[in-house]
Amino acid sequence: MSKRVPILILIFLLVLCNRSIAQISNNNSVTKETPIYVDGFDYPSFDPISNYAWFKVHFPFGETTELIIGGDHFRTYFADRILFSTSLKQFVSKRMFLNGGHSWDFDLLNEGQGYPNPIPRREMFIGIGYDVKPNLGMEAKLITPLGDPKFDKIGFKGAKTRLEFGTRLKF
How far is residue 64's CA from residue 97's CA, in Å, rounded to a whole number? Predict the structure, then answer.
């Protein structure tokens, strides 16, 4: 199964590129006035150590395709991680989209050793999402690690390929 996943992701990305040529005319999610836009949020700190923040830079191609470069920073008393990702987002209707990409997760505490781990945890993902309302969205992603990761994703000790469900609420 794991040998077929990169081939399936490559086919998925090729389909996304092919769909970007035949643009959907009724999608108005990207305006012509702001071709590149930035999203992000820094959650409030409730103690002197913990923090969570994220950002995404969107580069639209046509009306229905976006290249997204982003990052997340997560810090608690037991972990300090920073994740960078690139993804391709393809709208298949006005509200539904497919996405796929690659991420690099860096363990800044190196599992408690106090110095950063120079080898990131690399993962590939494919998924589907739906914008329920302008500030509310839902996503499902199939995520698989690449190579032999030296550390686990927080909360997924020993897990390899996983299915993640999530919501986005902007306020």
Answer: 9
**Residues in contact with 152: Cβ distance below 8 Å, sequence separation at least 6, in sequence order:** 158, 159
C-alpha to C-alpha distances, 69 to 110, 113, 155, nearest whole angstrom: 24, 29, 24
Residues 6+ apart with CB under 8 A from 55: 38, 39, 40, 70, 71
Going by the DSSP 8-state scheme, the letter that residue 108 receives in this structure is S
C-alpha atoms less than 13 angstroms from C-alpha of 142 in its C-beta half-sphere: 9
- 18, 45, 73, 77 from 50: Cα distances, Å: 43, 6, 10, 7
Phi, psi of 12 (to 5 degrees): -60, -45
Name the nearest CA neighbour of 2 among 102, 153, 141, 123: 123
Q: What is the pLDDT of residues 37-46, one digit of tens each?
A: 888 887 777 7
| Integer CA distances (angstroms), 131 to 54, 75, 92, 96, 107, in order | 19, 29, 12, 6, 32
Asked if 154 and 74 touch (Cβ cutoff 8 Å), the reply is yes
Distance CA 82, CA 104 (A): 8
pLDDT tens track for 118-159: 888 899 999 999 999 988 999 999 999 998 877 777 666 777
